[in-house]
Amino acid sequence: MQKFVAEFIGTLTLVLFGCGAAVLGGDHVGQLGIALAFGFAIVAMAYGIGSISGCHVNPAVSLAVFIAGRMNAREMGLYWVAQFLGALAGAGILAVLAGVASGLGHNGWGPGYNGEFSMQAALVFEVVMTALFTIVILGSTAAGAPAGFAGLAIGITLAVIHIVGIQVTGVSVNPARSFGPAVLVGGTALSQLWLFFVGPLIGAVIGGALYRLKVLR
Known about the structure:
α1 packs across α3, α3 packs across α6 (175-185) and α4 (119-140) runs antiparallel to α5. With 217 residues, the protein is an all-alpha fold. It has a single domain (2-212), classed as Glycerol uptake facilitator protein, CATH 1.20.1080.10. It has helices at residues 2-53, 59-67, 73-98, 119-140, 150-169, 175-185, 187-191, 195-212. The longest helix has 52 residues, at 2-53.
């Protein structure tokens, strides 16, 4: 139960801080500010709940950890439920503050969305960036990695991914982060949600497999 609550709170915080920066402060802080909001949210939660649940706050991360052999399927399922509910709660709080019409920082691609990149570009971005993200997470939390620095490495990586990719997809690399806003916004955001499940989960399989097969140690 402690792990469930920690993952719920952590994912809620990620969505509320990251998407909240985009919706409530985007005009003032710009793309860099939004990127840092997502990154700093992960740093904060890594040190706040990392000792309880590992601070996955992301179904793709939990899948990569499972594939790498560091958690069992039952625990992964528990994490997924907590993460999706947390993301929905975070998006719900943001909807109360800004209204659903604000878009809630939902992910997307194509005409009318940020840089209007293609579906193919969006899918490639999500796969590659999630793979790199999970590699950093698995490496920085492995035995022998410098103690105490994982949260910084993971948060900085997420911030850089957002700097690179906000114009492409708004950056998901996290099915739960995409799920919360899309469910409440509906329409195109919901119809495009599949890509933000498929891309990150494929990337997570790649990242996890590299450690499972001992290509990376």
